[in-house]
Amino acid sequence: MQLSNHLDDNIRHLKSIFPIPQSFDIITRDLFLGDTRGYWIGINGFCRVELLQQIFSDLQNPLYMKDHKIEDISRYLNAKIGYAQASLCDSWEEITRNVLSGPSVLFIDGFTQAIIIDVRTYPARSVGEPDTERVTLGARDGFVETLLFNANLIRRRIRSPKLTFEILSAGEESKTDVALAYMEGLASRELLADLKRAMAGLSATSLTMGTKSLEELLVKKRWFHPLPCMHYTERPDVACSFLAEGHIAVIVDNSPSVLILPCTIFQFTQSPEDYYKSPVVGTYFRLVRFLCIPVSLILMPLFLLLTAYFPQFSEKWGLLSTEALPGPTIIFYVMAVEFLLDLFKYSASVSSSRFSGSLSVIGGLIIGDIAVELNWASVEILFYAAVTLLTSLSLASIEFSDGIRVYRLFLVICTALFGVWGFSVSLFLVLYSVLTTPVFGGMSYFWPLWPFNWKALRTLLFRYPAAKAQPSSVWKRR
User: Fold this and answer.
1) Is the pLDDT assigned to residue 362 strictly greater than 60?
2) How do 176-183 and 36-43 pair as beta strands?
3) 48-52, 183-187, 457-461: least confident range
4) E strand or H helix that includes residue 45
5) What's the DSSP call for residue 3?
6) How far is CA 65 from CA 79, 425, 431, in A?
7) Considering the entire predicted model, what is its pTM?
8) Burial 79-109 (b: 16+ CB within 10 A, else e)
9) β-strands 26-33, 231-233: how paired?
C-alpha cells in the first residue's frame, strides 16, 4: 500500500497500524519545517536522542530553513538532513517494518514518500568470552544478542570485499532480522539459493528461541534424530574460519549464537582450543575427543550387559570388585546412577555460577557415598558412570553430547530389558538414526567420510600447522 500526499491521511493510517497513544513506548512529534507540516514517529529506547535533537533543531531553525516551502523531498533530504543513514520510502509495509526495527520515520505534507532516519540503538551487553567455548589462549570476545555487533565482529577479522551480509526477515509477527554471511565466490551458490528459498517460505509467527527456532524450521527431522543437524558457535574466530572455507553463517538478531551451513558430524568434534596449542598437542587432544564418543555411548550399556547377563565375564575381568550382584540389582543400580547423573548435570547447568561448583562437590562426595551406603548404587557403577560423564563433558558441542546421552539411555533401557538381543538391536537402531540424520540442502552428514575426501578428512583428524591447514580451494561436498 502506498502513502498519501495528505499528511492527515497518513497520520490516520499510522494510528490504525500502531497503538497510538495507548502504547507508551511509541513516541510521535508534530513538526513545522518552515511553512510545511511534518510528523515524526519512532520507538522510545531504540533511537539515539542526542542525534534526533540535533536533527530536529536544524530542521526547525529559521536560519537553517531559507526555503519556507518544501518543493522537492529528494532535494530536501540531500540538502537539509545532514545524517548519513537517511533514505526515502513510499511503502507502508517497509515503513512499519522499519519503525518496529528501530529506525524512525519523518512524514512531510504534500509528498507520497517518507524519510527514514536510521538513528537506532539497541540495549546490548558487553562482548565477552562465551561460557560454552572457552579457551586457555586466544580471543576473549563472543557474539552478543545484537545482529549489527555480531556482523562487526566478523568484519573486523575478515577485511575482504568478498564478505557479504544479506539481510532477510523471518516470522510473520516478530519480523526478526536474519543475516546470511558468506564469502562471494567461495560459498556454494546452490546452497545459498536453497537457503534463500527456504527463508522466504518459512511459516512461523515468530522465532521465539532465535537460532534454535530457525534450525527446526529449516530442517524437518523425526523424533528419533536427537543429534544436532546444524552447528552452533558463539565465537567470532570460529565463524570466520568456517566462512574462509566456504561455509555460510546465519546470524539471527536477539541470539548470541550463529548457525554454520553446511553441517557435518565432524564439526561437533572440533574445538577452538586445538588451534591455540601446538600441532602435536592439538592432535593428541583431538584424537582423545574422538575416542570419547564411543566410550560415552557404549561404556555403561556394555558394562550392564556383561555384569547382569554374563557374570562369568565380570568375574574373569574383574568388573566388580565385590561379590557378584544379581542381575536385577545391577540393572537398578545403573538406572539409578543414570538418573542421578542427569539430575546433577541439569541442576549445575541451570543454577547460579556461585552454586554450581558446590552442587558438583555435594553430588560427587556426599550423595554418591550415601547412595552406596543405602544400596542405591555400588562403587564400581559410580566409577563407570563418572568416566561416562567425563567423556560426555569433553565433547566440544553440548548439543552433540546431549544427543549421545539420549542414545546411551536408549541402549541402557533396551539392554536391561532384553539382554544381548536388546543391546544388539538398539545399537543397530542408534547407528541407523545417526546415518539418517537430515542436513539442510541435502548435504552429507558424514562428509568428508562420505563422499570420501582424504585430503579434507585428514585435516579434521589431525591438527595441521596454519600454513598447511588452509584449503587451496573450496572443498567439494557432493
Assistant:
1) no
2) unpaired
3) 48-52
4) none
5) P
6) 11, 82, 74
7) 0.82
8) ebeeeeebeebeebeebbebbebbbbbbbbb
9) unpaired
